[in-house]
């Protein structure tokens, strides 16, 4: 054994060891150079991502500006019931100086049948369209004539053109009128450009804004139409943002499934980088493709790799020479170091394993406030991998606030700073909110001075995540407040009615049936409140059972439950169109649809009939956006930010019944499905609620809480199932607040919550 070790030592000595060091040095140098070149490529990729994002943002900003200007101009014309050329000229004059890239003209368009053509011509000649000649297209069921036009880049096209001669703008006009919103057409050649030579004709679009007067019974007045040339538009946008480094190509998505290239923009170079972006423009979807030559992007060229290569070779040769000289002495010194540090390495490895394994965050700083140690749990809780050198930067770097989430946490009160001063602290609560933790996380921190046996002055802190604990405490407090306030009133009413029954029986006069009926109504109200509270809690913990769901069938089922009992002449106008197959839990999804459709039928102006449109449109890849639009009383702007909060009621003082939990339950259910929910005004009056769902052909991606592992999640779901089973065994009301997938389940509590009667009063008769 000794002979073998001696031979190994001799083999590793002198020139052989120097050769080994040389090889290692050259390999390391080569890897470093390769890494630098990879870094240059990565830098070019990052710059490409930034330029692509800028191009996408510029295109979206321009198209959104066109849409907003068109909608605002059309909105200004809704108040003018007898519009003339002077009114149109004044309303569209601001568009001349708006710098609308690629926009050819703006026109006012009205619909007319063959029989209405003479009357329409006479009316608009009288209102200033001198010499108006209407040229209807043969065979069209309805014509769309340009009455007034204003050219923005050149002379406006002649009035009297029939846009029914091109299917693309005609379909955009029909969709705009039906959906009461700005729409964009499929790509086509503008009618005004079809007389130009073929090499000057461009693929173009039109934006169409409907003009609906804001009255109780609106009569449609027409459209404001903006013509956009694709090549001029793309060249105008990319010439500004590309800095001569990006090629661009704009693709449209037509209704027939085709994706024609609308426009191209080219710069010198041989592109080897490409990015694609989907753009939602009004009701359509465009694709923007940008390409670049990486050699023209910043960070792609540098002499640093060559310098490192030469320097690495030189340094390797120098080190190899030193190793050759010191080989024997280094080997003996290395053996002594290995013997002396073996135990230290074992203890350090054990400490590292312990720090990596524990779930609480641990941080250690030296006397200057620089971090000596951050275990993985601490980095995960704080959300920021980098460590600032100056303690004065901690608050801004990590985003440290008091528990209120607004007040910055003072530096001198931080547990680690107090521990450096020799003061221990326990249970100090602070909120961490930064780009890594955008939603914010509440921590409880314990701080201690570093034990003197460590050999240096410092401090140690332990972080505990108490976000869920505080959230459950807040939910419990709110729940207790609701029970104490909202359930106390029905109980007091029941007691009063029962006392009235007792008095009437004791006196022998009066009819106790009336008082018993009122008591039953109070019990129903209290039961509905309990159902809603249980539904709010179950919507968070109930297990998801996602299966393919025919959204159109489910919506029709919910609408039938809501309005099926009404006479045919009293049923509201409900439009259902374009609903796809989705992946969702049918029972929970039914609750969302029932609540939103019920609100659309309920919150209407007194004496007016409800009108609801339920449609779907593409969202991001693999997702669909479901929109429920009504013509009701709307939601005040001040209430929109809080409409999905617990116990918030936008119309609490207007005589509409409710608990303030329905939209909060919908938000929980949609977010558990991985989607988003929001609300906006309906351009024609009323409200538009929208939420997103995954399409059937894509896997459902549920959001998982970052502070729970699989065992914790499974335990919570099993606990929720056990609680629901216990409530069913004890015949408690409320489980039907989450409706079953089958509308005819026969649950009386569920029937009560899904009552189709759009009631407007909250109290039973006195």
From TrEMBL:
Enzyme class of the recorded protein, top EC level: transferase
EC numbers on record: 2.7.13.3
Ranges of Low complexity composition bias in the record: 730-750
SUPFAM superfamilies associated with the record: ATPase domain of HSP90 chaperone/DNA topoisomerase II/histidine kinase, Homodimeric domain of signal transducing histidine kinase, PYP-like sensor domain (PAS domain)
UniProt-annotated location(s): Cell membrane; Membrane
Pfam families: CHASE, HATPase_c, HisKA, PAS_4
Chain ranges of the Histidine kinase domain: 482-697
Swiss-Prot/TrEMBL catalytic activity: ATP + protein L-histidine = ADP + protein N-phospho-L-histidine
GO cellular component: plasma membrane
Recorded superkingdom: Bacteria
Keywords, ordered alphabetically: ATP-binding, Kinase, Membrane, Nucleotide-binding, Phosphoprotein, Transferase, Transmembrane, Transmembrane helix, Two-component regulatory system
Transmembrane segments: 12-36, 304-327
Domain CHASE: 136-242
Name the record gives this protein: Sensor-like histidine kinase SenX3
Membrane topology: Multi-pass membrane protein
GO MF term set: ATP binding; phosphorelay response regulator activity; phosphorelay sensor kinase activity; protein kinase activator activity
Gene3D superfamilies recorded: 1.10.287.130, CHASE domain, Histidine kinase-like ATPase, C-terminal domain, PAS domain
Stretches the record annotates as Disordered: 730-766
BP GO terms, sorted: osmosensory signaling via phosphorelay pathway
